[in-house]
Amino acid sequence: MDAFDVSPLCPAPVELALEHVTFHAPRLVIAAHARRRTVTCPLCDRAATRVHSRYRRTVADLPWHGLRVRLLLEVRRFFCDTASCARRIFTERFPRTVAPYGRRTRRAAAALEAVGFAVGGRPGARLAAALGLDVAAATTIVTALRAADEPASGGLRVLGVDDWAMRRGQRYGTILVDLERRRVIDLLPDREAATLATWLGAHPGVEIVCRDRGQNYADGARAGAPDAIHVADRFHHLLRRFPDPPHQPPRGRNATTDGRLVPYTVFIDPQLGRIGMTEREAIAGKRRVRIAELPMNHVARALEVDETRGLMKAVVDAGTGRILGAAVLA
Ligand SMILES: [Zn+2]
Q: pTM to 2 decimals?
């Protein structure tokens, strides 16, 4: 290994020293350890040099010539010898390489996020796998998103994040939706990255974040759930215009999460977005319905964002003319 420069294999050469590269089919394993001698205690900020113990941590990195790559990091635990500090032992971090509890390097996470965000759920997972990106993560996208149209079990995995008008046009908060259960789970008082990050920190286990392209939600989700995969919800700008049902309590001070219509997207390919009742549900409820269909190339908003494939479909109560539900397939 001394014969040639292997530093390009190292995600952050300033931070990491390479030990060796081995091939364990089907992947390349790169062993590395921290370059620095001293680290600072995260609590008191004083230098620490006394090593308590060492262990190995595995994170996925970017593929190398189509081969999957694992980074085998040697991690040290240090004693903090500052008498006044409450922390006795702490673990060193690799801020340029990987998030504190991350399962993949920052650059691998960024690549996966770019793919997921550019092309959405299922196609994104296929593309990620084809590129040799962290297959476990690609599988996660497919399984989690497929489950979005089936009853969910277990904890929150697929989180939708969106703006929410407390007073229309004046104050905005953030609405958080469990997309597997199609339920609003929380309302945050603002749209700040830090607020979302704190919420995510208190609710671990989120694997996928569906969000718009806003920077605040991107930053908040990255900080609060570093391992989550980001997916763009292509329909949210169409579906969010759907009015609340008449029995809905007025927005404002007394707004609640109850009874609110939750638009959701199923990440099949083509994607399906839906709000309110489906045709089948309306008929099962003994309603007489009419179905209105509109190709997407007739929808002004769809033309504007150049998403003209597919169609919109509305389920209308034949008696009252009220729209009961709508779907977008594109
Ligand atoms: Zn300390």
A: 0.52
